[in-house]
Amino acid sequence: MSAKATIRIDTFKAEQRISRHIYGQFAEHLGRCIYDGIWVGPDSKVPNINGYRKDIVDALKAIKIPNLRWPGGCFADDYHWRDGIGPRDKRPRTVNIHWGNYVEDNSFGTHEFMDLCELLGCDPYIAFNVGSGSPTEMRAWLEYMTFDRDSSLALERKKNGREKPWKLPFVGIGNENWGCGGDMTPEFYTNLFNQFRVFARDFGPNHPIRIACGPNVEDYNWASVVLKNGRGVQGLSWHYYTHYPNWQTKGAALADDVDSWQGMLEQALRIDKILTRADAIMDSADPENRIGLYFDEWGTWHRTEHGDSALYQQSTIRDALVASVHFDIFHKHCRRLRMTNIAQTVNVLQAMILTEVGGQNRMVLTPTYHVFDLYKVHQDATYLPATVVANDYVVGGRKIAGVSASASRSEDGNVNLSITNLHHEDGVDIDVEVAGVTRVSGKILTSATLNAHNTFDKPSEVKPTGFDGASVKGGTVRVSLPARSVVTLTLS
Hints:
Strand content: 25-35%
Oligomer: single chain
Structural class: alpha/beta
Strand order of the largest sheet: 2-5-8-9-10-11-12-13
Shape: globular
Distance between the termini: 30 Å
Largest sheet: 8 strands, parallel, barrel
Helix content: 10-25%
């Protein structure tokens, strides 16, 4: 059965740009995200580029990741940067107190991270230690990385193999300081932010944006206090994870029941309410729109497969649709929203990529990765408001939107339209009203089952294919979209 829907694209209200940084990534020292994920070391039998898995580097380049956040997460507020510089075989072995008390050998540190960002062609975003660190430690790390003359710290960087300073555009002053980053009140954290910010100096030509720790989910009071009392705030972070039925009782990553399907999508759509309220709070404190919103942790959080602190989970077509509706909502809020970072890049939570345990060659691209690929056309494009008129998707008395969509115009003048059909079993026929279109092409991501996913033995179960369900007739684009699918169309 197919429902009917209409999408109207307003090509005359092209005022905002969708920052490419909305497609950012997050890599924490957690589980196998860094080790046995991104980093295998230069002596590994796995094909690598100076220690970085070549297949992962190639995959991340292909989706044009714009930035990478590191070293955490909770790990950041117990990380001391000096542990991660100098000869790798002489670095201290420390304990990761947040994620399983495993021994961290610090073989992946400042040089490895910053060089990775250069290799990927993306901007580094570092979360600095406020919970257990000091302004002195933060200031020294900034000087070490970014000073361009012959201070002792800059000379130490050169001795360790990096002649020129790196560019560091984004500085996070703390992470989740309301929780794992120190269990602080907003007033206490704001005083610390004001102190740390004074010492987060520009060194040489580097002029980073200083991002304050924002709230978790709907703690709007935290945001208000930081914005009211924080001095020199240039960005405010925010975190929200999608889980169902609740935080304490998370569902299975491979659940195939309709209740879990619709419940996860319902929770994902909450992000619009949160961002709308965040916009209002920030507009009140900053009517000139100078302070950016940095949604630097988001994604699905299921019951993990191994039941430990590694946070490894599979990614299904359901996770892919969670990502696509997030992006549609992120585009809608692009006036204030400057960056988002999905958690996390490899082997942790809603990952782009999964690798086989033990330094094996095999890896898979997840359905979520493929959504990033479909949506990369929106990076730095001009946002076009899209009005969706569609039936609600109703399950057991709960109802959510049945169709999600967003549109943009690229520099070449083409209109990019992404549409998600959230329904688990019904297709939808859509009339798209947009001026001046004569041709349409696109790619679709869909699946035969609710929990379809890619494995090492079957890595292509869920992947984009050419889409032939769209045509132009009489100035209207007509789209026939199957259930549980996302499509990106190019209209010209």
